[in-house]
Amino acid sequence: MSATPSRRRLRRRWRPWPGVGWGVRPERQRKLAAAAKIVSLSGRGDLEVAGKLSVSQATGTEATADLRRLGFTDYEARIYVQLVRQSPATAYEISKTTGVPRPNAYQALEALAQRGAVLPVSENPIRYVAADPKQLFDAIARQTRNLCTDLADQLSALTPPLEDQYVWTLRGEASVHDKIDTLIREAQSVLWIKAADEVLRRHKAALQEAADRGVEALIVLFGPDADEFRFNERWRVYIHEGNGVRMGSADNLFTVAVDHAQMLTARLDQEVVAAHTRNKPIVTLAQSLVRHDYYMAEIFARFGPQIEAAFGLHLRDLRMACFSPAEIRSFQERTGLG
Length: 338
Hints:
Arc Repressor Mutant, subunit A; 3 domains; TrmB-like; Tscrpt_reg_TrmB_N; WH_DNA-bd_sf; Transcriptional regulator
């Protein structure tokens, strides 16, 4: 049975390009045929070219999404990316290549010109070019940074600071040690520290930098060698109770007070957890802890034998009188003293 004229016309209209199967729209057929022709011309090299074109399209899509995050509208983002690819171009040409309706293209180009993202370079018809991306986004970054700084200052002035009312908890070894390092690096005048030598070694670079910029330090050390952290004459380091041995659970803490303004204390055995605050009474408490341990270190250095005769080795009598049962067991295990 012969095909009717309408069917013949339909077949001619839908006849595919060479090498392309049936059932594909003519516009899509032309694109696929062109791609097939590229591949057939030179094999692998042309495949790489086609791949690069695909990557370019993907990059443009990603850039458009990122531009929207910077406050560009969808039309503005699409137009700017297209002009970066190919310019100069008229609003009509841009509308045609981006799919942005022509009235919207004019509005978007005007908005982009106002923010310096595109520049008109000719008249009758007006053609546009994209501003250099590096210069444009460097300017946007500066403006955004200045705006954020101004906003932070304005908003900070609206209410009194509240952070000194809070105690912040940090958990995990990385978080705690990052905070310790930050506090040491931010110190401007003085550090008071009570800590074990193996903990301080982890932050030795930050401590050395603090000493080099003129920060003073008072350190009560669990460990045998005070000279390891005595970076200059303004860094006073004292061995805890004259022997540097840890006895009670409190001796497993790391404590630092910074510039008489903030403090952190951390438990570094078992679960690593720390508390940080600018609360004045708590900062004073931390400083008192370090100060009194400094007093004890000086007293032990002067009167060590008399103290041992009066209270026993490692202040046994005093500790046994106030330790909890668990602390007493730990003390006995560490020292062998009953």
